[in-house]
Amino acid sequence: MVVATMAWLSGASKKIHPDRHLPFSSHHDKSPPATLGILAFETAKTMSRLISLYRSLTDDEISKLKKETMKSKGIAFLNSNDEGFLLNLACAERLEDLNQVAITVSRLGQKCSDYGLNRFDLVYNDLKLGVIDMGKLGFGASKIQKIIRKMEKRIYATAKLYAALESLAEMEASERKVQRWKNTLGPKQKTNLDYVSQKIAFHKKQVQQYKGTSLWSQSFDRSVGLMARIVFIIYARICTVFGPYNPGLPSVLKNLSRPTSTRERQPFWNVHFNLKEEEIYGNNYCLVELGEKNEKLTSKSGPIPNKSKKGRVRFISNELMNPFFLDDPGCTGNTNCGTMRKNNRVFGLAPPSTVGGSGISVRYANVILYAERCLYTPDTIGEDGREELYNMLPANLKSTVRGKLKRHWLKKEEESDGCDGYSLAEGWREALEEILEWLAPLAHDTVRWQAQRNLEKRINFDPEPTVLLLQTLHYSDLEKTEAAIVDVLVGLSCIYMYENRR
Predict the structure, then answer these.
(1) Which contacts (CB < 8 Å, 24+ apart) does range 188-196 have?
(2) pLDDT value at position 174?
(3) pLDDT tens digits for 263-275?
(4) Those residues with Cβ within 8 angstroms of residue 385's Cβ, 6 or more apart along the chain or in another chain
(5) Residues 208, 2: contact at Cβ < 8 Å?
(6) What does each C-alpha distance from 200 to 207, 437, 495 come to in angstroms?
(7) Distance between start and end Cα atoms, the chain
(8) How confident is the model over 310-331, as a mean pLDDT?
(9) Residue 370: alpha-carbon gap to chain centroid
(10) What is the 3-class SS of 366-378, one letter each residue?
């Protein structure tokens, strides 16, 4: 299977029909292949996620990630300034995304008549074990670009079909409603009803046309074959880009020996995703033994593990390897936290000393965004806006803000330096603008990350690259983040007080 699969991937074999995307056809009957039908929408969604992953791994995107994103002040100060840690985190998340897509491709592949596609899970397993020579998988090859353009065209047509079906369903519901009132309608209204019926008939013809040009009428073999190729290409690209920073990935330049039968039986989502704490976190995080007399900490940069609890702090364990078996420890402040942990294992790796590990990343992001509105567009905030912002804070931050404000006003009363309210307010405004310049982007990306992952549960045909967790507040140091939020809120209160005094 490996040799024939490589012939298919490289296009070197002339014996394989160009419309067949994996070798080993197990049937010889002339019956027409099964078409996707209603599964066209899930297939289009999966294709969109694949294109999104493909675009996120281009040279331009990787260069932007290394030179701009990871070097930004907010990420360097709150998350980490260790390039190895951030790249390992990005690698783990991209592998997680690809694994989730591969699960869907494998499920759709079971409906294919082609043997190779039907056993996609075994082929993907071999790829992740390094059995398949990935040196022959060209990321930017012209054939791959043609496949991407073909997938984009079919996604667009399927999106039009989806919109047309939704519109048709609404019109048919309106028609049924009007039909119930038909006996009470006058001649003019009956004419309108005829017009609606004609319009529905036209939309039905349009839907049939869209079905013919979209994935609806495409065979399982053809569609899954396209996605299987891109899955292989993306995995090879991940190994090329992140391999120097993650020794757990197979080499793109070597073809390793055949694995043992024991390893071969592993589910493909487990293979090469059993990342140890030190492989993901490098020198940033470690396994920390917390005891009364012995505390070991090798972290030199990034968020500091929480020392308030005794016992072993584990970021990932063997029982968490299966994507369908994840616990839900302490998700507070975010109702979607438990679901997100089950769907994204990298999401659950954040330790308690981080904002995400405490389950309040979205809550703090909303606080920061609300504070940004108060500073830049105060006219959009109502009379009770300040109270609403204050109520968004957890109890510990409320207490900290009150204490810091009290100390500030006591100090100002003792100094009585004669400064007017205008100059004091402007001073605070400049300080807040400087903080929000690096803090607000993390909050915006946190909301975007959550929105993009929530859209994945519904029909979403957007193929643009998604936000990475390293760009959000999820892995931000909790103490540093809370200190920055307190400074922002104290500054807003001082601006409000000084301007009112003036």
Answers:
(1) 196/171
(2) 79
(3) 443 444 344 433 4
(4) 374
(5) no
(6) 10, 52, 59
(7) 80
(8) 30
(9) 23
(10) HHHHHHHHHHHCH
Q: DSSP secondary-structure letter at 379?
A: G
Helix (H) or strand (E) holding 313, with range, is strand 311-313
8 Å CB contact between 101 and 344: no
For tokens 């975010």, the residue is 334
Amino acid sitting at position 473: L
**CA neighbor of 354 nearest in space, from 372, 330, 335, 336:** 330
Q: What is the pLDDT of residues 370-389, one digit of tens each?
A: 999 998 988 777 777 788 88
Q: Which of 258-267, 319-328, 338-347 has the least mean pLDDT?
A: 319-328
CB 391 within 8 A of CB 367: no
pLDDT of residue 289 exceeding 70, the answer is: no
* Nearest in space to 468 (alpha carbons), one of 482, 457, 484, 452: 452
Question: Which residues, in sequence order, are CB contacts of 84 under 8 Å at separation 6+?
Answer: 245, 282, 283
The residues, ordered by sequence, that sit 6+ positions from 322 with a Cβ below 8 Å of its Cβ are 267, 269, 270
Spell 120-135 as b/e; 16+ CB within 10 A means b: bbbbbbbbbbbbbbbe
Lookup: tokens for 92: 């783990």
Whether the CB-CB separation of 406 and 414 falls below 8 Å is answered with no
Percent of the chain scored above 70 by pLDDT? Answer: 68
Is residue 322 within 8 A of residue 270, CB to CB? The reply is yes
